[in-house]
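ingest -> validate -> predict -> emit
validate: passed (alphabet ok, no gaps, 270 aa)
predict: started
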Amino acid sequence: MKKNYYALLIGLFGSVILSAQVGINTSNPKAMFHVDGGKDNNTTGTPTVTQQANDFAITTTGNVGIGTITPGKKLHVKSTSDPVQFEGLSQGNNNDNILTADANGVVKTLGSLNSLAIPSPTVLVLRTPQSNFLTAQGIGAAQTLPLSIGRNNIPGLTFNEATSTVTFPNGVYQITFVYEGVHNAANCTISSYFMDFPGLHGRRIHSTASHIEGGNSNHGGTITFATLFDGTTSNNWTIKMGRGQSGNCYGNGMQLFDYATQILIFKLGN
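emit:
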């Protein structure tokens, strides 16, 4: 009995070694190793696209095909929809490479979010209106803006609401300051304000708006600035709005509007 068993094994392995192709569920293998999952391939000829949809194949070059018996890459998955699914993936960061697919479905890396300079936003908002803002500040003096976080999508960026201080990770940023207010004071027709922007090339930028003397006169402005943090200067920025020198409203504060006053920060890259 043992002799017959050994003879069967030897014959089986011998046939596998001698055969150029091995098939499972098919007597018509078309690759070095060919599994017909649906057991629906014809006994002769090449399986149709529909028949190959449930096949698995390994070629003599080591290419693996799922849904195709002629894989063109080391792993070639062919399906009518959603051919690949991953579960249990961990969250990456902005320095990880992004996977993309070309027109033929070949997976490649495109670079990281940081290297592609895709803007990541942070929004700081004035949630409480400020009465008589800058009343006590003369030319060149500033007052802290009591902002709070509306959204923060920049990894590593923090904001201290108690001091209105932003701490930036190194990188290139675009900062936009938007404000809206109203004056109602005699002899006050031109408002002049400034924002001291931070970073390696930080600068003071002014905004001037004219309005009607007396009555509720709305005025506002937008200031945009691009800057760099590379560790050679402070990465902290306490947000203050100051009184410029070209206005004539000294001693008269404005009503600074809530939600219409905000800071938008975009990280453009490393």
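The radius of gyration is 34 Å.
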